[in-house]
Design a protein that fits this description.
The chain has helices at residues 21-33, 48-58, 85-91, 101-104, 110-122, 135-139, 143-152, 182-199, 219-222, 240-250, and strands spanning 6-11, 40-45, 63-67, 95-98, 126-131, 164-168, 207-211, 230-233. It has 252 residues and is α/β, with parallel strands linked by helices. It has an eight-stranded parallel barrel with strand order 1-2-3-4-5-6-7-8, surrounded by five helices. Bound molecules: 2-phosphoglycolic acid. 2-phosphoglycolic acid binds at residues 11, 169, 174-175, 211-214, 232-236.
Length: 252
């Protein structure tokens, strides 16, 4: 069993209401019970409407809450329907997912994502920055080119690298039950590490998560890939049983 700190990050997407804190409460109990044995960090990125309420209800040292996106504008502004990083911070977010492919698909560009990262870093939020290739890009062997662009156009040496976690999520793997083979995944993670070392000049702090159809069954395959520092989990994070089984099976 590894002694390395492993991240298990739930991405609830558009899911949950006030009663859903019970899901996280059950995971919290498991987390407390296993705190000495399993070196893990659990984060839940939930809808912004729930952050303040969940923080009050759960109030746990063992689970951190995060948001799933923000507007690039700092503070307040005339942006109907949007939330800034400072508003999310005040609501109790410690983390924020940025650059998720579901938002990129709606028109979010690398330039916009970079602005979002800058405004979230000013609020001292921890960023979970998502990158990943589409199926078309994979088929035309452009994966590394795409990842390189997503890293180099968005990240900069002057960014506080202790506040940035990278999540590699192949777009074709999200919600599809399709996953990469171990060899390709290792190669891709090593490529990302190399790119990050170029951007951050060999500061080796950055964690790299894998995301895309992670479940309680395939986690045993991923647990053998020591290059991975953790997981961004969508669908399976909406069930306490599945999420807990993912953690249990990782350490088996
Ligand atoms: P999935 O989603 O686990 O449901 O594939 C992952 C994500 O979109 O972050």
């Amino acid at each position: 069993m590894t002694n390395k700190l492993i991240y298990f990050v739930g991405n609830w997407k558009m899911f949950g209401d006030f009663s859903s804190y019970k899901i996280i409460n059950r995971i919290n109990k498991f987390s407390v019970k296993t705190k000495k044995r399993l070196n893990k960090k659990i984060i839940f990125c939930i809808p912004s409407t729930l952050i303040h309420f969940f923080n009050k209800k759960i109030n746990s040292k063992y689970i951190s809450l995060g948001a799933q996106n923000c507007h690039q504008q700092e503070g307040y502004g005339a942006f109907t329907g949007s939330l800034s990083a400072s508003m999310l911070k005040k609501a109790g977010s410690k983390y924020i997912i940025l650059g998720h492919s579901e938002n990129r698909l709606e028109g979010e560009t690398d330039t916009i994502i970079k602005k979002k990262i800058i405004s979230a870093l000013k609020q001292k939020l921890n960023i979970i920055y998502c990158i990943g290739e589409t199926l078309k890009e994979k088929k035309s062997k452009k994966t590394f080119k795409v990842l390189k662009k997503q890293i180099r156009k968005v990240l900069e040496k002057k960014f506080d690298d202790s506040k940035i976690i990278l999540a590699y999520e192949p777009v074709w793997s999200i919600g599809t039950n399709k996953i990469l083979n171990s060899k390709d995944l290792k190669n891709t993670i090593n490529f990302i590490k190399k790119e990050l070392n170029i951007v951050f000049k060999n500061k080796k702090n950055l964690k790299i998560l894998y995301g895309g159809s992670v479940n309680e069954k395939n986690i045993t395959l991923f647990s053998k890939i020591h290059e991975i520092d953790g997981f961004l989990i969508g669908g399976a994070s909406q069930s306490s049983k599945k999420f807990i089984d993912i953690i249990k099976n990782y350490y088996k």
